[in-house]
Write a structure and sequence with these properties.
Distance between the termini: 41 Å
CATH superfamily of the largest domain: Glycosidases
CATH topology of the largest domain: TIM Barrel
Radius of gyration: 23 Å
Number of domains: 2
Order of helices and strands: EEEEHEHHEHEHEHEEEHEEHEHEEEEEE
Structural class: alpha/beta
Number of strands: 20
Oligomer: single chain
Shape: globular
C-alpha cells in the first residue's frame, strides 16, 4: 500500500472545494459504490423493527414451536396505528417478523398449519403480513420482512435438503404475494432439529431466490450480501465505520470467529463490496412486548444518543417497537416515538451552514457564516454514490484570529456527526487529512446544539 502527499480539488455538493493537503492512500482507483436500492436505504437512515407473533401471547422471547395457534388473537389489531407512530418518529421503513424461531407464520402459508389460518383472529381468515404491507404503503413507508431460518416447529428442520425446500417455498410466498419488499432480514439462528442434527442453510439459494423474484430488495444478515449487521444489539456502530467489507471475513450468516464483532463494527477500508451497517436495538429490554416492561421504555434522550451512535457514525438505526397482545403499539412506546421525532426536528431545524459562503483554500472547505454564532455540532457527508474515501479529517473554527480544531474524526461516509462544547465563531472549515482516493464531500451542517 503506497502513500503520498496529494492536493485534490473535487466538485462537491457544497461547491468546488479543495480537500487537502492530505495523505492519499492508493488502494484502488475504483472504489465500491452503493446500488440504487442501497443508496435509498442509507439516505432513509431510520428503520423500525416490530417483533410480533406467538411470543407476544406466551410472554416469551423464544418460543419452542409447540404453541397452540388458538392463542394468537390480537383483537384490536391495527397496522395503520403502527405506521402512523413510525411516521411520527421520522422512520422511513418498517420490518415485521413474519416468522420467528417458533415457526408460527403471520400469513396463511400453504406449507404449514402453524399459522394465523388456525387462529381465532379474523375467524382464521386474517393475514397480518397483508395488512402490514398495506398499512405501511398507505402512510408512505416501505415494508420489510424478517423470516427466521430456524424453525422449531417444522419437522423437516435438520433434514437440510428437505427443510431448505420448505424455507424457499415460504420465502417465495412472501416475495410473490405482497408487492415490493425493501429489506429481507435474515439472521443466522441455527438450532438442533427434531432428528438431533444441525440444519445446513443454503444461503446461495436464498440469495438467488430474492435476486430473481425481487431484484430491488436488500438482504440483511451479519454476512450481507447487501446490508451487514453492526455486530451488537446495542444500536451502536463502530468508529471508524466503513461501508465496504471484505466478504471473506464473514463468509456466511451465523459465521463465528473471535473477531467477527469487531469486523462488523468497523468494516474494511480496503473492502471490495459495498455492505453498509444496520444497528438494531429494542426500545424495551425485550424484543417482544411484555407487560412487565411497560415502565422500561427508553427515554427520548436515550433514543437521541442511539441516533448519534448509529446514524451519526455512518450506519442505519433499526429500532424495535413490539406491539401488544391487542395488536397495537403500547401508548408509552408510541408517545416516545412521537417525542423522538419532535426532538429530531428541533435539533436539526436551524442549519447555520445553509446560508454560508462556501470557499476553498489549500487547507480545505471553508464556510463563512457572516456572523459569529455558537456551534456545538457538525454534520458531515460524503457523496457516497461515488464511494467512501475519507479516513481522517478535522473540523476547525477561527477563534481570536487563529484556526483551532474543535473535532477530529476518521470515517465520514453517508453521515458523521461530531458534538463538542459550543464554540462561537463566524468562520469554519473541514480539512481532509487522509483519504483512500480523491474525496468528495457532500453536505456540511453546523448546528447550535446536539439536543
Amino acid at each position: 500500500m503506497r502513500r503520498r502527499d496529494f492536493l485534490a480539488t473535487s466538485a462537491t455538493a457544497i461547491g468546488a472545494a479543495a480537500c487537502g493537503p492530505f495523505k492519499l492512500t492508493e488502494i484502488t482507483p475504483f472504489l465500491p459504490t452503493p446500488s440504487r436500492s442501497q443508496l435509498w436505504w442509507q439516505r432513509a437512515e431510520l428503520g423500525l423493527f416490530t417483533h410480533f407473533g406467538m411470543n407476544t401471547f406466551t410472554d416469551r422471547e423464544w418460543g419452542d414451536g409447540r404453541e397452540d395457534p388458538r392463542a394468537f388473537n390480537p383483537v384490536r389489531f391495527d397496522a395503520r396505528q403502527w405506521a402512523r407512530a413510525a411516521k411520527a418518529g421520522g422512520f422511513k421503513y418498517v420490518i415485521l417478523t413474519a416468522k420467528h424461531h417458533d415457526g408460527f407464520c403471520l400469513w396463511p402459508s400453504r406449507y404449514t398449519d402453524h399459522s394465523v389460518k388456525n387462529s381465532p383472529w379474523r375467524d382464521g381468515h386474517g393475514d397480518v403480513v397483508r395488512e402490514f404491507v398495506n398499512a405501511m404503503r398507505a402512510e408512505g413507508l416501505r415494508p420489510g420482512l424478517y423470516l427466521s431460518p430456524w424453525d422449531r416447529h417444522e419437522r423437516t428442520y435438520g433434514d437440510s435438503p428437505r427443510y431448505n425446500d420448505y424455507y424457499i417455498a415460504q420465502l417465495t410466498e412472501l416475495l410473490t404475494q405482497y408487492g415490493p419488499i425493501v429489506e429481507l432480514f435474515f439472521d443466522g439462528a441455527n438450532g438442533e432439529g427434531p432428528n438431533g442434527k444441525k440444519q445446513v442453510y443454503d444461503w446461495d439459494r436464498v440469495h438467488g431466490t430474492v435476486r430473481r423474484l425481487q431484484p430491488g430488495a436488500l438482504m440483511f444478515s451479519d454476512a450481507g450480501p447487501d446490508i451487514r449487521w453492526i455486530g451488537n444489539e446495542r444500536g451502536m456502530a463502530g468508529d471508524p465505520n466503513w461501508c465496504t467489507v471484505d466478504p471473506a471475513f464473514v463468509p456466511y450468516a451465523g459465521y463465528d470467529a473471535p473477531q467477527v464483532g469487531e469486523w462488523l463494527q468497523h468494516g474494511n477500508a480496503d473492502g471490495v463490496v459495498w455492505r453498509p451497517g444496520e444497528a438494531d436495538v429494542s426500545i424495551r429490554p425485550g424484543w417482544f412486548h411484555h407487560e412487565a416492561e411497560n415502565a422500561k421504555v427508553r427515554s427520548t434522550e436515550n433514543l437521541m444518543e442511539l441516533y448519534f451512535a448509529s446514524v451519526g457514525r455512518n450506519a442505519n438505526l433499526l429500532l424495535n417497537v413490539p406491539p401488544t397482545r391487542e395488536g397495537l403499539f403500547h401508548e408509552a412506546d408510541a408517545r416516545r416515538l412521537a417525542e423522538f421525532g419532535t426532538r429530531m426536528r428541533k435539533v436539526f431545524a436551524d442549519d447555520r451552514a445553509a446560508a454560508a459562503r462556501i470557499g476553498r483554500t489549500k487547507e480545505g472547505v471553508e464556510l463563512d457564516l457572516r456572523e459569529s454564532v455558537p456551534i456545538g455540532m457538525v454534520v458531515l457527508r460524503e457523496q457516497i454514490e461515488r464511494g467512501q474515501a475519507v479516513s481522517r479529517y478535522r473540523v476547525e473554527a477561527l477563534v481570536n484570529g487563529a484556526w483551532s480544531a474543535v473535532s477530529r474524526g476518521t470515517t465520514i461516509g453517508h453521515r458523521k456527526i461530531d458534538r463538542f462544547a459550543a464554540v462561537t465563531s463566524d468562520r469554519w472549515r473541514v480539512v481532509v487529512e487522509e483519504s483512500l482516493w480523491q474525496p468528495r464531500l457532500g453536505d456540511v451542517g453546523l448546528f447550535a446544539a446536539s439536543g
